[in-house]
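Repro:
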Amino acid sequence: MIKNQEQIQDRDLRKPCKRRSGKIAAALAFAGALLSSGPIDAQAEETLPRQSITMKMGAAYDPVAKDVRMLSILGSSLTLPAGLKLGATAGLSGSLSSPGQFNVEEAKLNLNVPVAGPVFFDLYGYNSRHFGVSKFSFGGDVGVGLPFGAALVGFEHILDAGQMPVYGALALDAIKKRLSISLSGGYVTNCGAGTAGLGVRFMIGQGLPALSVHTMTIFNRDALLFADTRAMLEYDF
């Protein structure tokens, strides 16, 4: 997800922003992650819940902290009557750079609500090592399904850093049912900084896992403050 490269960080704000900016990176990329599977279709006529389970396994690298870790994430999505969709994920990671060190990779809870036609909104809470959010934080977005994917705008409040970013995101179905790309951009309203991210998801074949790669960065005009890249195999059940 490629974000606008804000270059407005003053010297007197650079140090506090540097300490906190890594923690708000998720705010500007999480939307793309939510859209990695494509736009959500409202199915108002559906009367019975339908559940799906996803397991993700892979590795990640943080070049700023020079940390390599293995990770495993389990997710569940439940489609409810009236087109509501409730999703949850939880995962753990272990550092290869510091053997024996294990952490919560992420925990997410998301409610997707269809509004009218292709318009929908999400309410969610999450924390994520990949996106730099330590404490469970909150956000929401409004989006629209498009013939080639989906687009949305959103706002978050990151509790562990007090940041309040706004963002936009776009999910592209580059090759129908085969390749999707997610992009996003945003601005941290109370700490001038730019971020950039890109996600790619490739369906290998029927009955085979999908391969996903996602990179998240945050920076000012002088330095790269936060970065994390993870590659995963995704199994759907």
